[in-house]
Amino acid sequence: MRGRLWSFCLLVAAMSLPGSAFAADPPITARIAMNFTWQSTFAPLLYGEEKGYFKAANITTDILPTQGGDQSMQLLAAGKVDYAFTDGDSFLNATSKRKLDAVAVYVWLDTPTTDLAATTPLPSLTALSGKSVGTTTFSTIALLLPYLLQRNGIDPTAVPIRKADFSVLYPGFFRDEFDTVEVHAPGSWQALLVQAKKQGKELSLLRLADFGLTSYDKLLIVNRAFIKSSPEDVKRVVTALDKARADAVARASDSEIGAQMKSVMQQADEATLVADWHDYKSVIKRPGPIDPKVLIESAERLRETKIITDPLPPIDTLYQNQM
What we know:
CATH architecture of the largest domain: 3-Layer(aba) Sandwich
CATH topology of the largest domain: D-Maltodextrin-Binding Protein, domain 2
Oligomer: single chain
Strand order of the largest sheet: 2-1-3-10-4
Largest sheet: 5 strands, mixed
Helix content: 40-55%
Low-confidence stretches: 1-23
Mean pLDDT: 92
């Protein structure tokens, strides 16, 4: 009897170990497209690999950098990846145009990161009156900013928006060709601060989220057919991603994040990468489940600004929180 009890205890102990053969799920490969090249916002993917969170769930990750959310969604629609990160606006826009049939299953970054930088203080949107805004030729801020200005009682015509190629946008800003410039925090903000410091300039940041902009910056989406055929696989991947993200935010040291990011961005400045990671931690509020109110408000804004002109499916069909 004692021998059988001891064997049972050993079995229970083995099943509780991460990655144990007794408790292991069938092995799967999670092909994941990011909605940009590597940046510190995605550091938890590397952290989860190093800490063994994906291995413990018998998941092999195949992470693919892209040039943006549109490309990641194209890869998803073509079946070349199983999971794709994109922003909420792009997801809703592509859905309205029937470019993909996907659902959102996880919020990685729940705050919009479209911001403005200037060499003078910008305490509010009112301070933008009479100032020009520099942005890229493909940015939607030309539609987004007038919408926010009008909602805050500011004449949009008082804030001229000037477009430039990305390669000359920030050099033009430092040559005073624009009074303010589009920037993203986390994202390009910390690198811009480094450039400013080299030129002896100080920058201020105006976060559009503080003045009524609502959206999701990074959503994880999957094809509807895939989640229908493999719901347990999706749940397992989302669970591992959530653990990696939450534990990285709570426990990862700056030196860990810096080393992990340098492994995929060898030419980047480690201090800038770490500062960008702190930006991510400072702006996230409620990552994880999708809040339908955010999708609804985003859809209303996209309709008002004519970014979306086609009908959308009911919002409650565009996400699943059961993962």
